[in-house]
Amino acid sequence: xxxxxxxxxxxxxxxxxxxxxxxxELLSMVPRPVCAxxxxxxxxxxxETFRTEEEERIKAKGQDVKSSVYFMKQTINNACGTIGLxxxxxxxxxxxxxxxxxxxxxxLEDSLSMTPEERAKYLETYEAIRVTHxxxxxxxxxxxxxxxxKVDLHFIALVNVGGHLYELDGRxxxxxxxxxxxxxxxxxxxxxxxxxxxxxxxxxxxxNAIALSAA
Length: 215
Fold this sequence. Notes:
Elements: H1 2-7, E1 14-19, H2 24-27, E2 34-42, H3 45-61, H4 80-90, H5 103-111, H6 116-125, H7 127-138, H8 144-147, E3 153-161, E4 164-168, E5 176-180, H9 186-200, E6 208-214
Antiparallel strand pairs: 1-6, 2-3, 2-6, 3-4, 4-5
C-alpha cells in the first residue's frame, strides 16, 4: 500500500499499519492518531444474507448520513482495495498532504460534486489511478490491492466524518452510520465494528484490519 500511496502523490506523513489483534494491548501498538481503518473480510453466504437484511432495515427506518461523507459505488471488478483507499483518503483529505501533481488529488477535486454512481464511472475512465492499482497488484505485494484478485475477499473503509463512524462499501447502496465516535476513540470504535463482522462468521479466519495512522 505504501508504494500505492506514493505513486498517487501523497506525502508519507500518514502510513498504513497492520492491526495485529483486537485486544487493547495490541491496539495500543498502533501509532495515533488513526484517521481510517480498512477491513479485509470474506464475502460468505452469511455475510450476504446480513447485507440484504441490513439494507432493508435501513431503507425502512432511515439513517443520518452527513452530506460531507465522500462515498462512491464500485463498478470495476476487483477494485475494492482501490475504492477502500479512495474512501479512506477522500474522507480525510483535509489532513493529507498531496504533491501538486497528485493524480488522486485531481480525482478527488474533480469528483467532489459528483454522485456516488458518477464517481464510479469517472474512476473507470481515470487511467492514472487504475494503472497504479494494477501495477501495484502485479508487483505481488502481500498486502492490500493485490488481495482483490481473490474475488471472495472484499475491502471496506471505516472513517470518522463529523463525529460519526461510517462504513463505506462500494457494493452497498449507501454509507452505513455506526454511531458516534471521536478522534480519540476512533480506532477502538472501528475495531468494534470489525468484531461484528467476525462474530457473524465465527468459523472464518480471513479477516485483516489495516489502520491509516500518523507516521
